[in-house]
From TrEMBL:
It catalyses: (1S,2R)-1-C-(indol-3-yl)glycerol 3-phosphate + L-serine = D-glyceraldehyde 3-phosphate + L-tryptophan + H2O. This is Tryptophan synthase beta chain. Signal peptide: none annotated. Gene3D superfamilies: 3.40.50.1100. Tetramer of two alpha and two beta chains. The keyword Nucleotide-binding does not apply. InterPro entries: Trp_synth_b-like, Trp_synth_b_CS, Trp_synth_beta/beta-like, TrpB-like_PALP, TrpB-like_PALP_sf.
Amino acid sequence: MFRDMSTRTKYLLEESQMPKAWYNLQADLPVPLPPVLHPGTMQPVGPDDLAPLFPMSLIQQEVTTEREIDIPEPVQDIYKLWRPAPLYRAHRLEKVLGTPAKIFYKYEGVSPAGSHKPNTAIPQAFYNQQAGVKRLTTETGAGQWGTSLSFAGNLFGLEVLVFQVRVSYDQKPYRRAVMETYGARCVASPSMETVYGRSVLAEHPNHPGSLGIAISEAVELAAQRDDTKYALGSVLNHVLLHQTVIGLEAMEQMQMADAWPDVVVGCTGGGSNFAGIAFPFIGHGLRGGQKSRIVAVEPAACPSLTRGKYAYDFGDTGHMTPLSKMHTLGSTFTPPGFHAGGLRYHGMAPLVSHAKELGLMEAVAYTQGECFAAGVTFARAEGIVPAPESNHAVKGAIEEALRCKREGKSENILFCLSGHGHFDMVSYQKYFAGELTDESYNEQELAMALASLPSVPAQG
């Protein structure tokens, strides 16, 4: 029996339809991205300034304004383990909500690591191996990035050392076990393995850690050895570039569904999966195509886009990184230990921040409890248990669907389900037991962190 498009659930692409190039939003921006500054000279950084941390191929991707960057064939071959990723129509969720809207989600939990993070871990490992690098250091919050780089490093014969934020290290032991299964070493941060880690522990022996501190530790070790480079799972331009395979595939699949999105939703911590789903649609609109509303959803306990200041700041707490202009809560800000560890970062990707400043997107913030409630609603309707980070996107999509219900509008809503929550069940157990509190940050600490932002001369 023939079933029309309105009842179709999955939209699948063939391997031959996988994107052959990543999309660079910088090519279509009406105003160029503010430069990254050297913390010593306050002048724009050059390639040599970044060379101790990254191979030159990734540095070139960081600064290029070319619209398309070819995906190397070895990277494409590994992508085929899970790409193209499926697009789903959430029929059952629509019915539960009683909305006239059509809800679609791009599901990135089908990757070996269970999230979108291998989309950039694979090319980063590839380019480092090509440059003769033997070891990579990195940080991770919830563990999805650490898992992904461990997976990628093993495929390309690289040693991987992961500094995991202490609160997540303790909350999620199975993530650590997966990293070790892939051959990496995982250390709780702050640690005794670095000068900076030891200095933090000397002052605060029970420090819960933060992504900013873990970055400082990873950067410190990477800068000490010629055979070692640093890899970052979010924030930087080349990371966001690699993630655009998500949105590029989704554009093809939404056309298959004859349902170009009126609204595109993604969760935001550092900005990688959000940029992955949103940037191709933003670029489409900038080039004269149909425009979609773009909505970033962040945690109320770490609200860089909605409460942060757009200013130059360090990417790490130890002030070892260059200065980027971004929405920031201050590099000394330590977010409370809520369970969406991947969203516990003081700053937002400069390119996402810039898009927000240009009015190309909007941002909202929700509490942990609200997002878990949305995740449970989604899981009971669609069968997939989302990661705590992804619950923010689910919450954003549900809010848009309920708005459509109130307004009597049948809009097309697309969101990125960036990963599954199979390693996060302790947080779901706490939610059902009523033990998952809505953590809030210290207003005084935020004010102090913002007051200590670096003083930067006007750029022009």
